[in-house]
Amino acid sequence: MKIGLDIMGGDYAPKAAVLGAIEACKTLSAGQKLVLIGDRDIAVTILQENNFSPDNFEFVHTTEVITMGEHPTKAIVQKPDSSIAVGFKMLKENSIQAFSSAGNTGAMLVGAMFSVKTIPGVIRPAMTTIVPKLKGGLGIILDVGANADCKPDMLVQFGVLGSLLAESVYNIPNPRIALMNIGEEEEKGNLLAQATYPLMRDSKLFNFVGNIEGRDLFEDNNDVVVCDGFTGNVILKLAESFYVITLKKRLKDEFFDRFNYEQYGGSPILGVNAPVVVGHGISSPEAIKNMVLLSKNMIETNLIDKIKQAFQ
């Protein structure tokens, strides 16, 4: 198993990425190898400064970097030797089995769809994030930003993707799928929610439990929450602020500690033909480590094959 990591992506790259790679490397089994994609010379210097042998990794040297502010499609085309473009080329050729980056999210989405492509039957890939639950454990919300505008059949597919992720990677049996809305009743919501509800209710592909409201997100009556990417991204950014606020207010609380993005590593792009994980732009070494381990779990649980089977 070879796991590709873009070491040039993220606000604190390449140092944070390489330090995270060191920590991830310590947890990998024999036969599992991290492939560091980026400026080899800088990476080797950081490894040597931390007394960690470069021999623990494979390196693919690249000369270009896609920055956070660049237009995703133009950057992928105009910078073929960027760490993201090279990573996706390797993923397409199966010289790595998963690819992760804390770099430009748009470039990661475009790269995934251009290279390994969407699984046949999937209308649009979705991005997910983890939601801590008040009584312990976790839930999943999707989409959190890949698709600001959605159609009802896309949300139904998000239910399928989220259900498979919850069951395969997070070991949640028969996950309960809920639709984010402004009321619990079937007829509530905007046109999208109203049109989606009957499709999800009648689907045999997952365990639909109805509408939930924003206040139910952290409760134990759902495992996977489905929404369009605009709504999901607003929820994600709001939830991320909880942890920051507790730090500023010097509050110590076990529940709010679990809003620390570092624990979860990153957001999988679900619905493409290989494991792809996008990390937070501000990813620390701990977050990078967990992003790599999430990639590994997606390979080990055969998540992509399970998604392919569901959409046959």
Output the helix-strand order. EHEHEHHEHEEHEHEEHHEEHH
Strand proportion: 15-25%
By secondary-structure content and strand pairing, the structural class works out as alpha/beta
Helix percentage: 40-55%
Shape: globular
- Domain tally: 2
Q: What is the helix tally?
A: 11
Strand order of the largest sheet: 3-2-1-4-11-10-5-6-9-7-8
Low-confidence stretches: none
The third-level CATH topology of the largest domain is: Isopropylmalate Dehydrogenase
What is the strand tally?
Answer: 11
Task: Give the name of the CATH architecture of the largest domain.
Answer: 3-Layer(aba) Sandwich
Largest sheet: 11 strands, mixed
User: What is the name of the CATH superfamily of the largest domain?
Assistant: Isopropylmalate Dehydrogenase
Gyration radius, in Å: 19 Å
User: What is the CATH class of the largest domain?
Assistant: Alpha Beta
Q: Mean pLDDT, nearest integer?
A: 95
Describe the structure.
This protein has 312 residues and is of the alpha/beta class. It has two domains: 1-117 and 273-302, Isopropylmalate Dehydrogenase (3-Layer(aba) Sandwich); 123-270, 3-Layer(aba) Sandwich (Isopropylmalate Dehydrogenase). It is 41% helix and 17% strand. The protein contains eleven helices and eleven strands. The chain has an eleven-stranded mixed beta sheet, with helices on both faces. Strand 7 (176-180), helix 7 (191-202) and strand 8 form a beta-alpha-beta unit. The two termini are 26 Å apart. The model has no long low-confidence stretch (mean pLDDT 95). InterPro entries: FA_synthesis, Phospholipid_synth_PlsX-like. It is found in: Cytoplasm. This is Phosphate acyltransferase.
